[in-house]
Amino acid sequence: FYIVARAYAAAWGAVGLLAAYAIARRLAGAWAGALAALLLVVMPVVVCMSHEGKPHLPGAALMLLAVLAAMRYVESGRSRDRVLLAIACGAAFGMVLSSAPILVLIPLAELLRRKRPAEALLGTLTGGLMAAGVYLAANPYILLNAFANPDVLRSNFANSLAMYEIARIGR
User: How far separated are the first and last CA of the chain, in Å rounded?
Assistant: First the structure.
C-alpha cells in the first residue's frame, strides 16, 4: 500500500508538472513553460508531497488542470472546455477540501468570456452543478449518509470544520 500510495502521489506530481508547463507556455512561450515546470518540481512542498500518500498534491495538480481548462474556455468558448473546467474544479474539491477556492474559476471564466449577465449566470450555475456532481461522485458517502445516517455526516462536517478553526485567544 505504501509504495502504491507514493507512486499515486508522484504520478499526480507529473500531471501537475505538465499542467504548469502548459499554462506558462500558453502565457509566455516554451521557455516560460520549461521554467515553470522546473520551478514546480524543485519546490520543497512539491518534493515532500510527492513522497506522501496524501491527497494534497493530486488536489494541486487538479487545480492546475482547472486553470488550464479555464484559460482554454476563455479563449475558445467551446463547451468541451467549459465541461473540463467544471470537472477539474469538482475533482480538485473532491480530492481535498482545501481546494475549494478553485471553484471561483467557474464564474470567473464565464465573466471573462464577455457574455451577457444572464448567459454568465446560466454558465456559472451549470458549471457549478457539474462540479458538485463530480464532488459527490468522488465522495459518495456524503450523499449516502445525508439520507441513511445524517448524524454521521454532521459529525464528519464538525470534525472537518474543527480542523480549519482559527485558534481563539484565551483558550
Answer: 39
How far is CA 158 from each of CA 2, 40, 78, rounded to the nearest angstrom?
A: 29, 34, 40
Helices (H), the chain: 2-28, 30-42, 44-49, 56-76, 79-95, 105-112, 117-138, 140-148, 150-163
Q: Look up residue 55 and give its three cell numbers.
A: 491527497
Query: Any idea what DSSP says for residue 54?
Result: S
- The predicted model scores a pTM of 0.87
User: Which pLDDT belongs to residue 168?
Assistant: 52
* 34/146: higher pLDDT: 34
Residue 114: left (phi > 0), alpha (psi -120 to 50), or beta? left
10 Å Cβ neighbour count for 134?
19
Contact assessment for residue 95 and residue 58, using Cβ atoms and an 8 Å cutoff: yes
Look at residue 122 in the predicted model and tell me its pLDDT.
93
